[in-house]
Amino acid sequence: MRLLTTSHRATRRKGRWQVAAAIFLALLGAFSAIVSLQTLFTEQDFTRRAYATSDAANISSPGANCSRPQAISHYPADVFTQEQRRQGAVILHVIATLYMFLALAIICDDYFVPSLERISEALGLQPDVAGATFMAAGSSAPELFTSIFGVFVSRDDIGVGTVVGSAVFNLLFIVGLCGLLVGTAITLTLWPLLRDCSVFLISVAALVIVMYDGKIHWYEALTLVVLYCLYVVLMYFNPRLSAAFSSCCSRAAHQSENEETSLMKPVTEKDTDDEETVQEEPNYPFKAPSQLWRRVLWVIGLPLTTLLVGTVPDCRRDKWKRWYPVSFVMSVAWIGVFTYILVWMVTVIGFTAGIPDTVMGLTLVAIGTSVPDAMSSVLVSKEGEGDMAVSNAVGSNVFDILVGLGVPWFFKTVVIETNSVVPIQSGGLVYSAITLLSTVLILLFTMWLNRWRLDRKLGVICSCLYAVFITLATLYELNVFGDFNPPTCPG
């Protein structure tokens, strides 16, 4: 793991604003697409209009053949009424959403990723292993919190929808974003890519099987948790397996030593940079930058900077470099807090527009909870760690499915309510998960055609595939392809 120099930190600062802007545009684009599809295809326009013009408190009564919008009712009450939001007050929620994007950019760039680098150095982890384990688990905290919230509080499908939607976002949009912003093409290491994608395929297949009958039993939840334990064991033996895989590939293809090195090792500028051994203290956080636009952003983010400086040790500095475990834990905690507020604001915005909860979970909430994954992956990919970036994106999906869903389901059916079942209310989620399976295979095929390179061409293809998935998933939930969900209850 490289040590940051002044040029690397400048690249990170530039990268985090690019990522924040790209994700906000994706959120805006998804929101616009959902509203357009809802207007064009849904057969229950009258119920949507009634839903969009009523307050949450007035539409909570159950209906015989309709579903109640639940997500909004489980967040703190908004200071504005639905009518006030529709008349313009919703812009304040949009501003709050943007501020949470800024907060996540700062915490990921200045604290979370540096703590991961310290952990990897201390444990001697390979970059891909660090990305698939510590980085994946830490940046998946929002999805885990959303899943726990959906199982124990709201008792709806928003957690499952968020995990499925987040998996697609991580797999396609984040990998695509890394390709678009990385600058120089990175040749990915074949073993970590095949390893993580294979485990992810098994995880999605297991999710489809346990959700197929619409009920989650305790033994099904336990199966998911056991699969993740096996994944951790696989990571423990990763060095031996990687060496064996490299040896087999070398013998099978009869490649020269130079060709093998090109295939099995990332080729980036970092291999010829001597600057990696130079470590410098980061800039003083309360020193205003010289450029005007950076100074404006610095003033806007000053409350966040003050909050984080007082609560999270900066392990980039010599006096705090041994405090990286505390920095990691506190970073994850603040990521959870900021993401909760972000998802809350996005939920209010979606509720104001009359978007059903299942669609919210698959799209807008999934994008909001995936911001830490995107920040972490793009920041490390811009430093040449393509394997770490992709392993983080795919490893986060494995964690979300096997732990984010498996653990809450297990505690619900074993500890809280023994021998109970967790119902899956949306029939469209199973089809979305099946679509996700095909998406993984298409991604691997595309990477093979692109000679396992992470570049802008791959970025464009992945972004287009994500747009296709969002369209299909939304149409599933809007009952365009069949009667998967009841309409939203009118007021």
Query: What is the number of helices?
Result: 19
Output mean pLDDT.
76
Give the CATH architecture. Up-down Bundle
For the biggest sheet, the summary is:
2 strands, antiparallel
Helix-strand string = HHHHHHEHEHHHHHHHHHHEHEH
Strand content: under 5%
Structural domain tally: 1
What is the straight-line distance between the termini? 56 Å
CATH 4th-level superfamily: NCX, central ion-binding region
Oligomer classification: single chain
Remind me, CATH topology?
A middle domain of Talin 1
Count of beta strands = 4
Q: Order of strands side by side in the largest beta sheet?
A: 1-4
Give the CATH level 1 class.
Mainly Alpha
Uncertain segments: 1-7, 43-64, 255-273, 275-279
Classify the secondary structure makeup into a structural class.
mainly alpha
Principal-axis shape: globular
Radius of gyration: 22 Å
SSE arrangement:
Elements: H1 6-41, H2 45-52, H3 82-123, H4 127-139, H5 141-154, H6 158-181, E1 186-187, H7 190-211, E2 215-216, H8 218-236, H9 238-253, H10 257-264, H11 292-300, H12 302-311, H13 324-352, H14 357-362, H15 364-369, H16 371-381, H17 386-416, E3 422-423, H18 428-449, E4 453-454, H19 456-477
Antiparallel strand pairs: 1-4, 2-3
Helix pairs in contact: 1-3, 1-16, 1-19, 3-4, 3-13, 3-16, 4-16, 4-17, 5-6, 5-13, 5-17, 6-16, 6-17, 6-18, 6-19, 7-8, 7-17, 7-18, 8-17, 16-17, 18-19
